[in-house]
Write a structure and sequence with these properties.
single chain, mainly alpha, Recoverin, domain 1, 23 helices, 64% helix, elongated, disordered N terminus, metal-binding, transmembrane, MCP_dom_sf, mitochondrion inner membrane, mitochondrion
Length: 499
């Protein structure tokens, strides 16, 4: 056991325990406090301290706290706040006596909050008490979410929360305000990993009122821009393979692109792909919020998975309709030959003059049809995987890496199911149809979704509907990893808690 002076904290023991290295700063004294500390509580807090003290130097610093909180999927900022509140002598780290002093005071506040939740004062909080207490506090929560939160704390499967379970779960929460505790409990983030049809996340009422939501979107947008730029060669390779009528090897296509336009050509179409992130995210978010209001009316309850699917699909449809011409331009620019277009405006002008306004919505129908299976499967698989994990690890909060893994798996499965529609969309976007009769006098027949599907099946077989899916899969892991790193640093700079 780490030695704590249980009498007056004087002399070298007290000074060595909580003095900043190399300094002579005065040390807060806790004589009466430690003297009153029961043996069982002292041992419990020492075990927690040792677990947090990753480097074993009998001090907890920002690195120790960050590593511990990261296992809970919580951000560096929570560690900074905890350290700021517990570091009494401003030494930059926390010794055992400081830690025990802070945690005991924190636990008194947690006890007070628990007493408010425990309506019948039986020492336990059940589901009905939880819902009633949150309602009285003005925190809207339906029975489904309350049950999920209760299950996350309920270590012994008793279907209620004891004070010990409440205290242990919220020990590192750097606040005792009930609204902050609930945010720590259930908060989620928005992250763009470079896919077009991701379903927006919900934001709390507090985040909506304080404007924190735009910081989430900005952090996600920056992460998405960097991620898309880094994986742009794979994206262009995918588009190039999608429009080939016969099977092509990835290496041959890559060699052709390098020979035709050099290394820089691998990033063709990326600028407009990044450019469309901001309007797409903003329109999708606004549409999602509007559809949520229509579904819930005046009720502020949490939406069910089915309602989130409907809202997400509608939001995706609205945003895709608004920015679809940019999708067509992205495809055309990705497939262009050297010198064909001098800029985005030049490409838009030439396409309009040759093919008319309708060309900017070519492939729109399969694109819209693809939203439903992608959004539905993506959301359903994500929720299923997360629930499966929680059912086997009832006492653990899933880490951010685990949530990203669930998101990657669900996104991949969603792409597999909707990929044929995405391929047909790309083929239609890529085909230039000139207005008016052909030079030989015949009338040009504009391709549509049905005849493109038929032609692929007849000439290439079912496997033709999945051309280019290999580079699409290859880019998932680097896209997720890059997005995670960029999002973490960007959100930290913008003051967003990543939980």
């Amino acid at each position: 056991m780490v030695n704590i002076n249980r009498g007056p904290a004087t002399g070298n023991d007290a000074g060595n325990e909580d003095r900043q290295a190399g300094g002579a700063a005065s040390t807060p004294q806790y004589p009466q406090y430690l003297h009153e500390l029961p043996q069982a509580d002292e041992e419990r807090l020492e075990r927690i301290f040792k677990k947090l003290d990753r480097d074993g130097n009998d001090r907890i610093d920002i690195h120790d706290l960050s590593a511990a909180l990261k296992e809970f999927g919580l951000s560096h900022q929570y560690a900074e706040r905890f350290l700021k509140q517990s570091d009494q002598n401003q030494s930059g780290d926390v010794g055992l006596a400081e830690f025990i002093h802070y945690v005991r005071e924190h636990e008194k506040n947690l006890r007070l909050q628990f007493t408010h939740l425990d309506k019948n004062q039986d020492g336990k909080v059940d589901l009905e008490e939880l819902i009633t207490a949150f309602k009285e506090l003005g925190i809207e929560m339906d029975q489904h979410e309350a049950a999920k939160l209760l299950k996350r704390m309920d270590k012994d499967g008793s279907l209620n929360i004891s004070y010990d379970e409440w205290r242990d779960f919220l020990l590192l929460a750097p606040s005792s305000d009930i609204h902050e505790l609930v945010k720590y409990w259930r908060h989620s983030t928005y992250l763009d990993i470079g896919e077009d049809l991701n379903v927006p996340d919900d934001f709390t009422q507090s985040e909506m009122q304080t404007g924190m939501w735009w910081r989430h979107l900005a952090a996600g947008g920056i992460a998405g821009a960097v991620s898309r730029t880094c994986t742009a060669p794979l994206d262009r390779l995918k588009v190039f393979l999608q429009v080939q009528a016969s099977k092509q090897r990835i290496s041959d296509c890559l060699q052709y692109m390098l020979k035709e336009g050099g290394v820089r050509s691998l990033w063709r179409g990326n600028f407009i792909n990044v450019l469309k992130i901001a309007p797409e995210s903003a329109i999708k978010f606004a549409a999602y919020e509007q559809v949520k209001r229509l579904i819930r009316g005046n009720d502020k309850r949490q939406m069910t998975i089915y309602e989130r699917f409907v809202a997400g699909a509608c939001a995706g449809g609205v945003s895709q309709t608004a920015i679809y011409p940019m999708e067509v331009l992205k495809t055309r620019l990705a497939l262009r030959k050297t010198g064909e277009y001098s800029s985005i405006l030049d490409a838009a002008s030439k396409i309009y003059r040759r093919e008319g306004l309708r060309s900017f919505y070519r492939g729109y129908i399969p694109n819209m049809l693809g939203i439903i299976p992608y959004a539905g499967i993506d959301l359903a698989v994500y929720e299923t995987l997360k629930k499966k994990y929680l059912s086997h690890h009832e006492t653990e909060q899933p880490s951010f890496w685990l949530l990203l893994a669930c998101g990657s798996a669900s996104s991949t499965l969603g792409q597999v199911c909707s990929y044929p529609l995405a391929l047909v969309r790309t083929r239609l976007q890529a085909q230039a149809v000139t207005i008016g009769p052909n030079p030989d006098g015949s009338v040009a027949v504009e391709p549509n979704m049905t005849n493109v599907f038929k032609r692929i099946i007849q000439t290439e077989g079912p496997v033709g509907l999945y051309r280019g899916i290999t580079p699409n899969f290859i880019k998932v892991l680097p896209a997720v990893s890059i997005s995670y790193v960029v999002y973490e640093y960007t959100s930290r700079a913008l003051g967003v808690n990543m939980t």
